[in-house]
Amino acid sequence: MHQSFPVRLVAEALGTFVLVFGGCGSAIFAASVIADGPINMGIGFTGVALAFGLTVLTMAYAVGHISGGHFNPAVTLGAALAGRVEWKAVGPYMVTQVVAASIAGLALFGIASGREGFDAVESGFASNGYADRSPDGYSLVAALLAEIILTAIFLYIILGSTDSRAPKGFAPLAIGLGLTLIHLVSIPITNTSVNPARSLGVAWFAGPEALGQVWLFIVAPLIGAAIAGLTYKMLFPNTEDVILER
């Protein structure tokens, strides 16, 4: 990767900001909109899933060639374990992602607060959760399994589509559509994390219960990413150890 390190961090910050602002923003503002009576005009789960996928797809094309387009601490960990990014970049990347996600959460909070009667805690503010905070009441164990498995799948998609043997130029499509699929599966379970930065970015504003459960959405994605990062080269040997580029 030939960009200076500060420029790479700026690219990660921008991409992560857009992911959280666009994905969580779609859930906060557009998932359920009542207009002119009881008819729900919102985009629903499918629309939110597409919004998350589109943010990653578009920003991977926009800045992936600069930073690798991780936008997610779990992706950074998995990429490092697979030999696709240097270990000295891991800490700065993760810090940048969490800070950018939190700024996006703050921006969303500022906009949402402009609506009369808005309550971030009561609305959930697109935060992740399990048990009584799961959209459909799934347990802690169910949430843990879902987040580990789906993050591992996400990393396999990323590592496979950016493999030196893969068709060039299509990785953002595979990754964005993969994230859409993951959201279609897991929004009812946890509101979908697979990204600790995304979870923390809005949890700060969603109240103590959201913050009390956010640990799962840090630990589970990192475990899933580590599984994929450590096993990819064993499952699909003879890949080149190149820096993750999209």
Could you list the spans in which at least 5 consecutive residues all have pLDDT below 50? 241-246
Into how many domains do the coordinates divide? 1
Counting DSSP H or I runs of 4 or more residues, the number of helices is 10
CATH architect. name: Up-down Bundle
Determine and state the CATH class.
Mainly Alpha
Distance between the termini: 11 Å
Let me know the largest β-sheet: none
Query: What radius of gyration results from the CA coordinates?
Result: 17 Å
- Helical content stands at 55-70%
Average pLDDT rating: 93
Shape: globular
Q: How many extended strands?
A: 0
Comma- or semicolon-separated keywords:
Glycerol uptake facilitator protein, 246 residues, 0% strand, disordered C terminus, 10 helices, mainly alpha
Q: Can you put this structure into words, describing what you see?
A:
The chain has helices at residues 5-30, 44-67, 73-81, 90-112, 120-123, 140-161, 171-190, 196-203, 208-213, 216-235. It is mainly α and 246 residues long. It has one domain (5-235): Glycerol uptake facilitator protein, CATH 1.20.1080.10. It is globular, with a radius of gyration of 17 Å. The model is unreliable at 241-246 (pLDDT under 50). Pfam families: MIP (PF00230). Belongs to the MIP/aquaporin (TC 1.A.8) family. It is a multi-pass membrane protein. It comes from Zhihengliuella alba.
